Amino acid sequence: MPVYYTKEHEWVKIEGNVATVGITEFAAHQLGDITFVELPKTGKSVKQFEVLCAIESVKAASDIYAPVSGKVMSVNEALENTPEIVNESAEEAAWMACLEMADPAEVGKLMTRAQYDEYLKGL
Amino acid sequence: MEQLRDTPLIDRHQGLHALIAPFGGWNMPIQYEGIIAEHRWCREQAALFDICHMGEFLYRGDLVAGGLEGVFTFSVASIPVGRSRYGFLLNEAGCIIDDLIVFRIAENEAMIVVNAATAGNDFAVIGSRLQPGADFTDISAATGKLDLQGPLAREVMLRFFPAEVGALPYFKFMKTTILGCEAIVSRTGYTGELGYEVFLPAAKVVELWDLFCSDLRVKPAGLGARDLLRLEVGYSLYGNDLDETITPLEAGLEAFVNFDKEFVGKDALLKQRAAGLNRVKIAFRVGSRRSPRHYYSVCVGDETVGTVTSGAFSPMLGCGIGLALVDPKCAALGSELTVCHENVTMSAAVCELPFYGGGSLRS
Which residues pair with B337 in a beta bridge? Predict the structure, then answer.
């Protein structure tokens, strides 16, 4: 299953027309201890690179952007009471939302893992 | 911009891969393994903090005749030798130049411990209020300070130091010999836990740090954890909750102002008290895990009624907590508020301090 990355440090895993979204380990590490995840509402429609939801750490509050356009099908409710999962497993257990993807061609605007790793080196 | 200063422990912090950031003009460790883990360690075990950035001044001479008695909002002459007292240095307008602690070291000797960012100005202001020729020196550079805080702090201290240290009551201190040098050990802190502040020559700080860290009950904690710990017990932070636009009355700290004596700013405070306050400090809890933060707005309905001065997620309470300055009409316990910032809103309610009262502070 292909996984793509954004410059804002989200990842998106594509399975058919379902896009699963989270933040990268790099982002989680930068934020520090995650204390709160504001999950999007199921049924909400978002456009690519618009605000999907929000996350807070001890240090800062940040927006999370939608890597692709779509409609929120489900959210990871475990994050409501145990947001520390984001620190433990940002790119696996701490997925945040599944979107019904509107336009598969949008992944062309995202980075592959190799491109993202290269991008991180430049930060 | 003045160059940032390093504490004697900078190599230790770097060796521990601490996140280091500017604070009060110093490069300070914000976190080591993580703010919440360090916070928990302090609440459950014993946490070690590098506090070498804070300022220390030494006054020698008659406290009244030399002018020190009139400088602060509290009487220094009435502090018994071996005790310390918290209070304020005010400007003429009654606003807070700094919050500080005075240690009565001897009949004619007092140490004043102040915040790092304000230390230079404090020294000038205090000096200007003393009689000419007063023996008043800034000993900050030569003085190191480590805080050991947590329910196991006493046991750790007793492992390394004389038994009399363990008998110190809250807000009492003693002179003693540590690592062959004269040191001051004080039963004070900024965490709400049983704890000690140790003042010793800066050249000995690394040795004492290593000694404490050789005990498995001790882990270093950074300023991030310290900020959470102090907020959970409702202590004010200079620069956030207190500054040169805020009076002790507004900050809810009148208990540290003695109106039976003279001090700079007294007239302004009496006027403010007579006229009534336009804003007062409140503590509030958020109804979720969201963190309020410094400068977020406090609203009731569509009306902005105040500003958050400190805010955080409280690991002990599992919700957001904060301090704010608000219109007195919204300050009653239980009053419902909304905290807003850009597209973030959170519901909150005025509550009592401390947020967390379960600490080992007085044990």
Answer: B348
How many angstroms from the chain centroid is the CA of residue A36? Answer: 15
Within 54-73 of A, beta carbons closer than 8 Å to B belong to: 54, 56, 58-59, 61
Chain A residues with beta carbon closer than 8 angstroms to that of B34: 32-33, 87
Cα gap B307→B284, rounded to integer Å:
12
How far, in Å, CA of B208 to CA of B217, rounded? Answer: 15
pLDDT tens by residue, B3-37: 899 999 999 999 999 999 999 999 999 999 999 99
Among chain B residues, the shortest Cα distance to A55 is held by B290
Residues B95 and B125 in one domain: yes
Last residue of a domain, one of B80, B106, B135: B135
> Does one domain contain both B201 and B319?
no
Q: How many folded domains does chain B comprise?
A: 3
For residue B287, the chain A residues in CB contact (below 8 A) are: none
Residues 82-111 on A with a CB inside 8 Å of B are 83-84, 87
Q: How confident is the model at residue B362 (pLDDT cuts 50, 70, 90)?
A: confident
Residues, chain B: 363
Q: Do A59 and B224 touch (CB under 8 A)?
A: yes
What is the assigned CATH class of domain A3-121?
mainly beta
Q: Chain A contacts of B289, Cβ < 8 Å? A: 35-36, 56, 83
Residue written as tokens 């929000």?
A: A54
Q: Hey, what are B224's tokens?
A: 């991030």
Select from B291, B293, B340 the residue whose CB has the most chain A CBs within 10 Å, as the one to mutate to test that interface.
Answer: B291
Whether B213 maps to a domain, the answer reads yes
For chain B, say whether A78 makes contact (Cβ under 8 Å): no
* Mutation site, A29, A31, A34, A36, interface B, largest B CB count within 10 A: A36
Q: Which residues of A touch B35 (CB under 8 A)?
A: 32-33, 58-59
- Both B44 and B89 in one domain: the answer is no
- How are beta strands B173-178 and B181-186 bridged, if at all? antiparallel
**CA torsion, points A68, A70, A72, A76, in degrees to nearest 10?**
-20
Could you report the per-residue pLDDT of A8-44, keeping only the tens digit for each?
999 999 999 999 999 999 999 999 999 999 999 999 9
Same domain, B41 and B21: yes
User: Domain boundary at B232, B261, B292, which?
Assistant: B232
Q: Do B290 and A83 touch (CB under 8 A)?
A: no
DSSP β-bridge partners for residue B313: B320
Q: What CATH number is associated with residue B83? A: 3.30.70.1400
- B204-227 per-position pLDDT tens digit: 999 999 999 999 999 999 999 999
